[in-house]
Amino acid sequence: MKELLEYRVKLVERLGEATIEFCAACTGYNDPFAITVGDWTVHQIAAHTRDVEKSVYGARVRRVLEQENPEFASFDADAWMAKHYRKDEPLTQILDELSASVNGLCEMLKDVPREAWSRVSRHETMGGELTMQLWVERSLAHIEEHLTELKKAGNP
């Protein structure tokens, strides 16, 4: 049990650290529209990461805490970007919102009782018995995935 509690503390700490690193990586580019990482620019990756954190993983964690066994729909990142992406949105605003969302989530997670980590949810394609801990892990994995992409792309 001690190892599990330590893991969760480190998970929350790493979520905050990864977000700081991600934001630094994004602001390290002179022109966030000039570099393409995969199919998206740095600016698009930042907006996508913020939106997924706020509207998918962060929202799922919060709903698992508030509701009994909530069900989540699948998320289509490309459709979301086509509808919501704004090229004129300042990168600093995007990153500030990402940081605020993650920091709020981390603060909340520090205070949840240990049994809350095992609260379950359902997903339309992944099935049931998906714990709150899984959504926190997915949030971290998503931020780290894009952080790794940015690092591989290199800094101009």
Describe this structure in words.
- By secondary structure, the protein is mostly helical.
- It is 65% helix and 10% strand.
- It contains 5 helices and 5 strands.
- Strands 3-4-5 form a 3-stranded mixed beta sheet.
- The longest helix is centred in the N-terminal third of the chain and has 26 residues, at 2-27.
- The radius of gyration is 16 Å and the shape is globular.
- The model has no long low-confidence stretch (mean pLDDT 93).
Topology:
Layout: H1 2-27, E1 36-37, E2 40-41, H2 42-66, E3 71-72, H3 77-84, H4 91-111, E4 120-123, E5 127-131, H5 132-153
Parallel strand pairs: 3-4
Antiparallel strand pairs: 1-2, 4-5
Helix pairs in contact: 1-4, 1-5, 2-4, 2-5
